Each structure stands twice: as C-alpha cells, then as structure tokens.
Amino acid sequence: MKFQVKFLIINFLLLATAGLSSSAQRLSDRYFGISKQDFVDTIKIKIWDGAIIVPVEIEGKVYNMLFDTGAGMGFWIGKEEEWMRPSGDTITTMDAQKRKKKTAMMFIPSIQVGSLTILNYPVVVDEGLNDFACGIIDGAFGFDLVSKGISFKFDTQDSLLIMTSHHKIFAKEEKGHAKVPYKVYGGRPFLWTKIPFARPRMLFDMGAVGGWFGLPQDLLDLWAKNDPKIKQQLDEMTVNRDTTVMTYAGLFGANYDTVVNGELCFPEIEIGDIVLKEVWVSTATHNRAIGSAILKNLSLIIDAPKKCFYFLPHDGNPEITVANRGKGVNVVPAEEGDPNGALKALVRKGTEAYKLGIRTGDYLISVEGVPISDMCTYMRLMRKKGSIHIVFRSPEGEIKEVEW
What we know:
With 404 residues, the chain is mainly β. The chain folds into 3 domains: 158 residues, Beta Barrel (Cathepsin D, subunit A, domain 1), CATH 2.40.70; 149 residues, Acid Proteases (Cathepsin D, subunit A, domain 1), CATH 2.40.70.10; 75 residues, PDZ domain (Pdz3 Domain). 14% of the residues lie in helices and 44% in strands. α6 packs across α7. It starts with 7 loop residues before the first helix and ends with a strand.
C-alpha cells in the first residue's frame, strides 16, 4: 500500500492566504473584467491530488494557476513581476491562525485562459510560499471569477475545464443531480452538509490540496457540551486523540501550533445527493472545510446564475466509500541548519506509523533510496505510484525502515 502521508503544509497550503476580507472581494469585483460576455471554452487542465491546475498565458509565457475556491481573490507565489501593476490599494489578509496583516494588492494586466482574456486581475503577492509550492503552481484564481457570472465544469475524470457565460449550458448534465446551494461569505462559498449529529455549513476549499474534511476540535467540544447524545456519538467515532502540531504556510511564513487532535471516523457524510462513507476526519484545524480530495471521485459544476454546486460521480454511483485513513505521519521542515536532516516526522500515538516504531522528531532520510534534502524532493518522490521504501533516523541515530 502506498505511504499516504497527510502532509498538512501542502494539504492546507492555501488556507493561510484565503482569509481575505470582504473589502478585498469588493475591490476585486470593482477592478477586473473579462474580454467576452458570450462564450463557451474547453481547456485541458492538470489534477493535483484532486486540485485543479489551469495553464494560462501571461506576457507570452505559460504559468500554472490553481483554482482556489477557498480564496476570495487571487494570489501570486514568488516576487512581484515586471508586468504587474500596483493597484494603489492595500487589503487586510488573515492567516489560518486569525492574525491580520495589511498587504498591497497588485494587478496582472492580462491573463489568457483558453480564448478568454481576464483583464486587471487582482492578486496578493506571497514570496513565502515558494518553498512549498515547488514549482507545481505559480499562483491561484479565487472564487471572484464565479462572481463575474462565469459558470465552470471541472471534469476531473478527463482533466478538462469548461467555462461559459451561458445560463443553461450545463442543464442536461445537472438534470437528475441534487443542486447544492452555496452562500458567499468573505468572497468564498459555503455549503450545507450533513454529518451524523449535525448539519454544519462548510467552506468548499479547492485550495486545500489533498484534504478531505476538517472540523475544529473546539467546535466538536462545544456540540458535545451542549448535547450528551452528541458527546456519546463523538466518543464512539473517535479513534485517536493526541496532542500534535498543526502547521500552515502562507503570508505569515510557516506557522506551527500545538493542538489536541482528534481522529474520527464518520460512517457517512452527505453533500446534496452524494453520500461519502467511511470518512476519516482530523480536528487539527481552525477551519471547517471540505478539501480538494473529494474531486478525485467526482466532477463538479459551479453554476453561477443559480448559485449552486452539482457533484457528478465518475461512475454514476452517488455513494462513495472514501476510507481515507492515513498512516498517522505528518512531515515538517527541521530547523534551518540542522545537520541531522531537512525534514522531521510528526507521529500520532496509536497510528500504524507509531506501531511500526516511527516517532515524532525522527528525521526523514530517504525515499526510494534518494536522499531527502528539501521539501520539494520529498513531494516529487511521494507522487510515485505503488509501494514506497522510506528510511527514518531517530535523533539518537537509530535507523528505521518502512515500506507502504
């Protein structure tokens, strides 16, 4: 079985830049426009752990833009480019740990997406994400594209993006599927879901790369406190509960926060007519969100005029067994200059990795025989299909080899 690391820095990479205020959304709406008002366009895209990567052309060069519904507007990874223009405005950004910062907003004068030109697209520039994006993406579009009245179909089975300004272009495909209305808060879409003991409204965050479901522990504790029946259900579904490190990367750099992490198995979660079974949920998050991993099994239509989502199962079956339990290992960078290694393990007690002897603080030495000197090398090797041979070393020098 492949070594399925739940790598929080990447899984929630973009949540840290998603907390753009509603004022940012208004600025975004005011400034940018599109070159056509009557169009249908089909574009070949890339899929990264369920996330959508759209090739675009800027100043004659091809870049890769993540489609991030978890952000109210766009952002750019790296330094300011010569072709960017300052907007003259600053906006308030907020990271995943609720810290606020004033940030300058820049314009990308022209982005070519298929036959459509996006004009004066506003972005926040974030050089700090370079170490974690690893050249896979150059920036991201936010949900503000939908606010322009553009509807999208993300065909994750055939790796196609269809975008259109026509109101009824997807009507035939939508027929027979439940529509899932969304509400926009802070420029981002929230959907009603049904879990075993509640009906929470969840952020649909396609920028949470590789993530499934996140529910904050303090929210679960509040529900349990107010209802003994919910407490009993939570106790029955909780498999592990341990103190762990939650980590984010974004406008404020890499942030670490020690939290109590619960690992729960929900028998099912409903989103419209989609039923996800055997879903493993981590509570090591400050956000309640649905991540991009759901699109491994589904295509998605965002119908802008109806303000609805439609989920289209690849095999036509609305019941999907997720069984997304990982091995219980997270990976974070070691301190700069640490002579023992570049990456260190975070291991939850009671998990498969823990039972095999891997411990928090062990260094990740090699993957498939290749020495690990940086995060990007690790990410590239972990995309290999099939079993993977991994070597850890304890701070005391003990070698630990595993193969999943």
